[in-house]
Amino acid sequence: MRIKSLKIRGFRNIAKADIEFKKDTKVFAFTGPNGHGKTNILEAIFLLAISKSFRTNENEDLIGFEDDFASLKAEVEKGSESVELDLIVTKQPPKKTLKVNGVQKKAVDFMGNLNVVFFSPDDIGMIHLSPGIRRRYLDLLLSQLDRDYLEDSLNYQQAIKQRNSLLKRISNNEAKEEELEFWDSKLAEVGIRIIEKRKNIVGKLDNFSVNFYKKVSGEKDELKIKYESSINTSEPSQYVEKLFAGRRRDILNGSTGLGPHRDDLIFLCNGYDMKAFASRGEWRSLVLTLKFAEIDLLKTKKGFYPILLLDDVFSELDEERQKVLFNIIQNTQTFITTTHKEFLDVVSSIDSDSGEEGEKVVFEVEEGRII
């Protein structure tokens, strides 16, 4: 898989950009000072893959201050197939439109046409902070791998919203407890499928990490990845029973306390929970492991490598981890942002070691203009 071209109009501080990406080039770098729009390029690609931003949930934030709409278009090559993806966001009416080959699509049908793996320093700094961030990692990965999972995830989110609204109305004596039975059954039906698919993918992540984490960390540490479920059952009837048992608490809190929206990923390094003691270097090794597990899983499932987006990661990686990174991504079209061109020297050194031509293209980004 590769992106052949990218067209941007009115997106954040980029008024207009038309970029062609050479077929025989694997690495495309965007350099320049902070705040000039380098990350906006990666965000545009991410939006065309996921239909959502990694920065904001507000669509209006994507539109330039002096613009009425933002438009993103990419031509994507997947083997012998070529696909054109469009994403348009308007201020009035506030709307996001998704198209595949000119035909308007729902998000569930838009995703999967372009697969990406995104890596930034925030991944290293934030993955240990909250279960929500770790769940989001799983959801993004599974949504690219499995269309049915994406549908279940969207349905589950809607069911949780409806159940929580009902809990608040029950607390205010505006509804009866018996009305929860419908939503409990709905959550159990969809939630079980979500949990089982998450457990399955975590098992694959764990298998991948056995050797790769040792390589990244210097052949010394052992990583174990586990899925921690708040429901811990594969039977819908038992799921419903657990929801019923926690009903009074849920009514008092006005929210649903059990389910995949409360589950977590546990990372054990040499048998110890990383949340309690891991160093920043160990978190770096973990995040690298997870990102390359994504690449491996997407390649296995889809039959081609995903696009890799690296947002200013060089400052977080020492030279050895940089070499591991670039040795593994030689078959992957990669987009890089950095404030320092000298960081890109590692790309040339790796290519020289492998005996390949090592061509890369560097773009300068200045106040929203790509040079």
Q: Strand content of the residues, in percent?
A: 15-25%
Could you give the order of the helices and strands? Answer: EEEHEEEEHEHHHHEHHEEHHEHEHEE
Can you count the helices? 12
What's the overall geometry?
Answer: globular
Largest sheet: 6 strands, antiparallel
| Uncertain stretches of 5 or more adjacent residues | 350-357
The share of residues in helices is: 40-55%
Mean pLDDT: 90
Label the structural class. alpha/beta
The rounded distance between the terminal residues' Cα atoms is: 25 Å
Main sheet: which strands, in order across? 2-1-4-5-6-7
Q: In angstroms, what is the radius of gyration?
A: 22 Å
Number of distinct beta strands: 15
Chain-wise SSE layout:
Blueprint: E1 2-11, E2 14-20, E3 27-31, H1 38-50, E4 69-78, E5 81-90, E6 95-100, E7 103-104, H2 107-110, E8 116-119, H3 121-126, H4 131-145, H5 147-171, H6 180-217, E9 223-228, H7 236-245, H8 247-253, E10 264-269, E11 272-273, H9 274-277, H10 280-302, E12 307-311, H11 319-328, E13 334-338, H12 345-354, E14 360-366, E15 369-370
Parallel strand pairs: 3-13, 3-14, 8-12, 12-13
Antiparallel strand pairs: 1-2, 1-4, 4-5, 5-6, 6-7, 9-10, 10-11, 14-15
Helix pairs in contact: 4-5, 5-6, 5-8, 6-7, 6-10, 11-12
Question: What would you note in describing this structure?
Answer:
The chain is α/β, with parallel strands linked by helices and 371 residues long. The protein contains twelve helices and 15 strands. The strands form three sheets. The chain has a six-stranded antiparallel beta sheet, with helices on one face. It has a six-stranded mixed beta sheet with strand order 8-12-13-3-14-15, with helices on both faces. A hairpin with a 4-residue loop joins strand 5 (81-90) and strand 6 (95-100). Helix 4 (131-145) packs across helix 5 and helix 6 packs across helix 7. 38% of the residues are buried. The model is unreliable at 350-357 (pLDDT under 50).
